[in-house]
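Wait, can you check?
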Amino acid sequence: MIDARPNTSSPVTPTSNPVPMAYGAPTMSAASPTSVGGNDTGSSNTPPPKGTKKIFGMETRAVVTVLGLALFLVLAMAGVVVSLQQRLNPGTVAPNAPESQPSADVIQEATCSLSFVVAGDETAEFACNTACDTDAQCKTANGNYVCADNRCRLSSNQASESCQTTTTTYACNSECSTNEQCVSANGNYVCADNRCRLSSNQASESCQTTTTTYACNSECETTTQCKTANGNYVCADNRCRLSSNQASESCQTTTTTYACNSECSTNEQCVSANGNYVCADNRCRLQTNVGSESCHNPDKPTYACNSQCDSNEQCAGASSSYICSNNTCRLATNVSSPNCQPDTNEVAIGCNDTCVSNGDCSNANHICFNSSCRLATNPESASCTDATGGTTVTPGVTTQPELPAELPQSGAEDWGIWLKAGLGALGIGVVLLLFL
């Protein structure tokens, strides 16, 4: 007799590789009977589930989704490309023929119309802005039309697509070719350098009226312009200058001093220097000897070095350094020289010595007073004594300042001072180190 009770003495051990179960299949418990006819096989009688289909290692549904999206993107890009090509390269499309016949008896220049020319149509009508090949085609519509850039346009305004007539309005600084064009804007305008400008001020781009004010050194073209500023001005080298001093840029009045051989234009100018002078060949010369550049009077003796004389004044006419010594003009500092040469061994001229000028006195405190070197502060003193009772200055001797009581130290002693200062600084440093 077969015992149908479950065997509880030895539990069923699960296999190491269980068979995968299909989703929704009944689950076999460990206590369920697993044997038929008393044989324990450890497996179920349920058939194994079917495997999912895969393509290239991916599920079929995923592959189909990817292919669908790719096809959609390709079709979308194709649509965009076709649309762009149609926009960039539009084709010529013939319009539908109108049911009514439009009348073209009267063509208004201001009327905007559009027409099409179909190849092979010999009865095509031309109008403003229609396509054309020759001027004759456009003139069938209007005698003032021409074919410009393969379009019928008004000959006087070919840029207008509506064949509008334009009237050029001229104004200041407008481009022009004739004065009449500018005069239509303003009777005072002229065409200057192809621009409408004010006739009285052609340089102004704004046609401003200007009143030129002239002054000293202003640019000018005529003397009349300069005289509006000053009646004494003239236009010299295109500049307004004072007529009496045209070289001055500030129009300063100058008083010219005339002398022998000075440039002149009238006798009065030379007479202001000497009553015996006249203006000869634009030069001030002596009236009795106009050929002399030094205005020498042939009737009056000329004095020079070693000339016979009676007074110092006669010799001074030749040179301020000359005096009349023994009735002969000689150099005051070396009367023994017949050629008036200075003495190389010249002795300094001291107090009360003979002199001609202050420079002859060797002492800086002396002046030449009545042909004698005297003290400047008391020239009446023949001994060059100060009027306050000071020390008499020794003639011919230049005094020196007194020496100081002690000369300033320099040289090696200065280095000794620096050495002492350095040693003192080192000593202070050593003391500070000891406290550390």
User: Anything to note?
Assistant: Residues 347-392 form one domain.
